[in-house]
Automatic annotation (TrEMBL), chain A:
Its main location: membrane. GO terms for cellular component: plasma membrane. It is a multi-pass membrane protein. GO terms for molecular function: biotin transmembrane transporter activity. The lineage of its organism: Bacteria, Pseudomonadati, Pseudomonadota, Alphaproteobacteria, Hyphomicrobiales. This is Biotin transporter.
From TrEMBL, chain B:
Keywords: Membrane, Transmembrane, Transmembrane helix. One of its GO terms (cellular component) is plasma membrane. The chain crosses the membrane at residues 22-54, 66-84. It is found in: Membrane. It is a multi-pass membrane protein. Residues 199-227 are annotated as: Disordered. This is Energy-coupling factor transporter transmembrane protein EcfT. Belongs to the CbiQ family. InterPro entries: ABC/ECF_trnsptr_transmembrane.
Length: 209, 227
């Protein structure tokens, strides 16, 4: 970690905290508040890359542990880790890591395999503009969305659901169905994170590490 | 800056060293996960509640502190009653309540500074093994706390600039300039920290290796920083 890396990790951790102050939109009756903080986690991974990206939510978790009210709704302290939804918080670290790792691999020009496959099955009206018109931008965007989804949704939910199943003793299947209500919001956040990263990359050369 | 939850006080729990309290909490939390007897869990919850009340915080404020996590526990209990059975719900609710009470008791009696110091001390073994750099970790945490109001000010500045140009608030339109500003600002911050001679040269006793390289050899050239 260079001094610049320390600054970047601290700044992105602060972004995750600051996004918790943006009013949350309540979605369901389940005990996970829908907030923009997971958007900050996805952005940390997509912009900074796996190692520094994972360090940012790790810093936030350390701040929670030392009792600062840095989570959405002013939550903080060791109480958070005793809660049934702590897995979604812990999962931020591997989520940002995976999103960063995939962003390194997938954020590049060229027709993605998915678009090529769709073209092969003659969905031309849909895929021709994707494969041709974007000249790389669309494929980069799709790659970033995939990175944000797999990291920020699949990985984070895997941790959150397993933790919820054990802490609340409701079993994996019920924990899984109970968590489904939050997925639409997280998909929207993944698309926003990918769009933001794409545009930031146009203005500033990202080097992911 | 943001204030911590931990309050001043002179209760027995306040006087206990932070490291002991955290170790005790870890032991209790682990033990509770292996207990399935409602009576034992109920006793643990009562002891936890007593520990929380012994901190001298007004019960009304305690209730407010625990409203959000308490709601989560209640919802879990409801889910268990509806999906599994009442006995499972009782065990889950008692265990989570006991955990909440003990954790809150530790948080209320330990200042953020104490916890940060404990964290830094806990990191020293990893530092000795060369896995991480405790002063850098401590600096990162301190900077993150300092940067929260800075990010808030950046967001306000960007919103104002866009409002002046008649642009409506849109998450992408807000986040893009924010992230670019952050990336640029990280350079300025790094220059400012480097100019102040961080990291400090390592004295004997902190590290076994007394011939640790002076800051003239930048540690960013260490191979583990590069994939």
């Amino acid at each position: 970690m260079t001094t610049r890396d320390i600054g970047l990790v601290a700044l992105f951790a602060a972004v995750i905290v600051a996004l918790g102050a943006v009013p949350a939109f309540p979605l369901a009756v389940l005990p996970v508040p829908i907030t923009l903080q997971s958007l900050g986690v996805m952005l940390a991974g997509l912009v900074l890359g796996p190692k520094r990206g994972a360090a940012a939510p790790l810093v936030v978790i350390a701040l929670v542990a030392i009792g600062l009210p840095v989570l959405a709704g002013g939550r903080g302290g060791l109480v958070v880790f005793a809660g049934p939804t702590a897995g979604f918080l812990i999962g931020w670290v591997p989520a940002a890591f995976v999103a960063g790792l995939l962003a390194m691999r997938l954020d590049r020009d060229g027709t993605p395999a998915l678009v090529r496959a769709l073209s092969a099955v003659r969905l031309n009206a849909l895929t021709r503009p994707l494969a041709r018109g974007g000249t790389g931008t669309v494929s980069r965007l799709l790659g970033l969305i995939a990175a944000a989804l797999i990291g920020g949704v699949v990985v984070d939910y895997a941790f959150g659901i397993v933790w919820l199943a054990f802490a609340a003793k409701i079993g994996l299947a019920k924990a899984f169905y109970g968590s489904l209500a939050f997925i639409p919001g997280d998909i929207v956040k993944a698309v926003i994170a990918a769009l933001v990263t794409l545009k930031v990359g146009d203005a500033y050369r990202l080097d992911r590490r | 800056m943001i204030g911590g939850i931990g309050a001043d006080g002179a209760s027995p729990l306040h006087r206990l060293p932070a490291g002991s309290k955290l170790a005790g909490l870890a032991v209790i939390a682990t033990a509770l996960f292996f207990v399935d007897v409602p009576a034992v869990l109920a006793i643990a919850a009562v002891i936890g509640g007593a520990a929380m009340l012994s901190t001298g915080r007004a019960p009304a404020r305690l209730a407010r502190d625990l409203a959000l996590p308490g709601l989560a526990v209640v919802l879990v209990g409801l889910a268990d009653v509806l999906l599994v059975d009442a006995a499972t719900a009782l065990v889950a609710v008692l265990r989570l309540a006991a955990l909440l009470f003990f954790a809150q008791a530790v948080t209320l009696t330990t200042s953020t500074g104490e916890l940060a110091d404990t964290l830094e001390r806990a990191l020293v073994p990893f530092d000795r093994l060369g896995l991480l750099d405790a002063p850098r970790v401590a600096l990162t945490l301190t900077l993150a706390i300092r940067f929260v109001p800075l990010i808030g000010a950046e967001i306000a500045a960007i919103r104002e600039a866009q409002a002046v140009r008649g642009l409506a608030g849109h998450p992408v339109a807000l986040a893009v300039p924010l992230i670019v500003r952050i990336l640029v600002r990280a350079e300025e911050i790094a220059d400012a920290i480097d100019a102040r001679g961080f990291p400090p040269p390592r004295g004997p006793g902190i590290l076994a290796d007394r011939a640790a390289p002076s800051p003239a050899v930048p540690s960013e050239d260490l191979p583990h920083d590069h994939p």
